[in-house]
Structures are given as structure tokens and as C-alpha cells.
């Protein structure tokens, strides 16, 4: 993702965060979330210039575009793909698994949702805690009362009478492919409001699963990686890289040292252009 795409989206995401004061422990998490939202927004913006894709929940018949295999040039961060961050093997349940066994699987594996597969390991749907909760509610009170009870989420009410994973699941499933960019998968997860996405091959067979947490960690580099890129820039701009000291905390870069005033503006501008840099504190003493 280029800086020109990332920066405006990130700023918009940061403006959208709550206005209440953040606690010291909460602020780093909010910074990370804002940067994640910025990456997702930039991915959505990029999608608007590409060919329309099927709506979330529909199968994709074609492989991802060739840009997924983009090889980074020297000094450019590598583009991460879903295959780099997905969890394997993926936990799944067969379509004929009884309701109580599905509930036990979610509890045992500490999952909020699980893919439902057929005999060929093709993903046919996803059963979630919400689906099981609806089933439990119908078991507790089988008759709904009032016009809202009769009309609201009729499909959810009807399927909650099922007794197996296949009859309780949400379908069609929203899935991603191993070769998709992480930012694209993050956009899909955000758009569909899902915490976990099954990863399938071109034939729709389950090969892994990726969570929003996996995508978050992949999209936002940690401070050590950012510091490494800043130090690489310093070596390009200064004859003696030891003249500058760098610290990075929650994406904020602080630079100190006695440096030639002729190179300081360009160096600082280059640091600000690094992806995932939230801000730059200039404590440099020009000489």
C-alpha cells in the first residue's frame, strides 16, 4: 500500500475515533485500531478502481488478479497475503453434526464461529455463536409473540428450528483465497462484519482460517520493524549514521542527535512517509 493511499484513509479513520479522553493503557490500542482502519479504508478505496467483485457471501469463480503476486522492489515492504497469516489446520464441522456437538466444539476450541463442510471438504456455510443462541432461544420459548416477533428476522427464526450444523448455519459462506492480499481480506472481514473467515482454494475446499486479529497483526508493523526502516533511511542520508538516535513507541518516531541542517528536512520528510508511522518528534539539533 502506497503512502499516498494510506495516509488520507488513516487520518479519516483517526478522526472517526471517539472524542473522550483515552487512558494510558487504552491509547496504544486505539492507535493500532486507527491504523488498521486506515489500511482497510485504503483497500476499499483501491477496490473502487478495480473490476466489481461478487457481493460478500457469493462464490468467486476466478483467481485473484495477478497483482497478488507482486514482487517488492528493493527497499519496498513485502506484500503479505492471506496464506502468510492464516491458521492451519482449520477447525471445521460436518453438515450433519448435531446442534449440541457443534456447541461443544465451539466451547472446546474457544471459537466464535466454525466452517461447515461437506464430504469433499468444501465450505458450505458457517455456524456461529449467534446461530446457536437463536436455536437455544427457540428451545426455551418456541412461540414468538407480537408482530415484531412474527416478522423480525424471519429467516433466522425459521432456520433456528434446525438440529444440525447444515440447518443452523449461515450461507452462502464469505470466504477468502490464500493468494489474496491481507488488506483485501481485511476489507472483506470489515464489510461482512465477521471475526473469522474461512480460507478456501479455487475449488472451495477449506485450507485454513484467518481471524481479524491475524489481519490486524499483519497490517500494522510493530515498532521494531518501523525503527529498522528509519535506521535504513538514516544510513542513506548520513555519512555517520551513529550521529542520529531513533526510538519508536506506538508508531511515533523520536529522532535526536546533532546533524547537518542541510539534510534534516529531507530526512524527516522521508521518515514521515514510512507506512505505519503515526508521527515524528523532531529533537534534532541542526549544526
Automatic annotation (TrEMBL):
PROSITE patterns, A to Z: CBS
Compositionally biased residues, Basic and acidic residues: 1-15, 23-32
Every CBS domain range: 86-148, 169-225
Keywords: CBS domain
Gene3D superfamilies referenced in this protein's UniProt entry, alphabetically: CBS-domain
Record region (Disordered): 1-75
Record-given protein name: CBS domain-containing protein
Taxonomic source organism: Streptomyces regalis
Lineage per the UniProt record: Bacteria, Bacillati, Actinomycetota, Actinomycetes, Kitasatosporales
